[in-house]
Amino acid sequence: MSVHLYLANNSVRNTTISCDSLGIHYTVSKAEKIVTLSRWDKMINSDVVVGEFELPFFKKDRIKVGPNGEWQLMRDYFDKPGLFTCSKAFTSNNGTKYIWKDHWGYLIMTHPGDKEPLIKYHHNTSGSSYLEVLDFSTITGLDTILLTFLIAERKKRDYEAAAVAAAAS
């Protein structure tokens, strides 16, 4: 049985990601050039920042993980999965290694070296998009999984837009 985490809209900079049946609710917001991911914590009845990232045009991309995290370059945060790949390998807040990769036009998350998806992103431009959680054990690492998903999807969209612009010229 899978779990669906629904995105309120098609944006990866201003949206909510939620699963009401599990009480999961994240908010993605952009202020200035920084995208912030926060999680609703019912114990304190407030949002908790789980991470932030910045993808500036003329500077180096950077990320801050956790409410008290330090800013670091993304190239230092993500493991290098190999040459000539857009994949994003990382270690989640539950200590497990994962990798986001493009699979026939949509993102999937796997363990490094595995082909079997743990999470699939179903992108729908005219309706509700959602992340399908196929392995429930990933829920414990959801804070960094969602943060890295937002980065991987933003980078994928930027790459696709650049490819379309290059083909048109």
What is the percent of helical residues?
Answer: 10-25%
Based on helices, strands and strand pairing, what is the structural class?
A: alpha+beta
Side by side, the strands of the main sheet go 7-6-5-4-3-2-1-12-11-10-9-8
- Biggest sheet, in brief? 12 strands, antiparallel
State which percent range the strand residues make up: 35-45%
Instruction: Please write the string of helix (H) and strand (E) elements.
Output: EEEEEEEHEEEEEH
Q: What's the mean pLDDT score?
A: 91
Instruction: Give the total of beta strands.
Output: 12
- Rg over alpha carbons: 16 Å
Shape: globular
Question: What gap, in angstroms, lies between the N and C termini?
Answer: 46 Å
For the record, the count of structural domains works out to 1
Count of runs of 4 or more consecutive helical residues: 2
Q: Which stretches are low in confidence, meaning pLDDT under 50 for 5 or more residues running? A: none
Question: What would you note in describing this structure?
Answer:
The structure is a single chain. The protein has 169 residues and is α+β, with helices and mostly antiparallel strands. It has one domain (3-168). Helix content is 18%, strand content 38%. The chain has 2 helices and 12 strands. The chain has a 12-stranded antiparallel β-sheet with strand order 7-6-5-4-3-2-1-12-11-10-9-8. The longest helix is centred in the last third of the chain and has 27 residues, at 142-168. It starts with a strand and ends with a helix. The model has no long low-confidence stretch (mean pLDDT 91). Residues 10-158 form the DUF6593 domain. InterPro entries: DUF6593. It holds the Pfam family DUF6593. This is DUF6593 domain-containing protein.
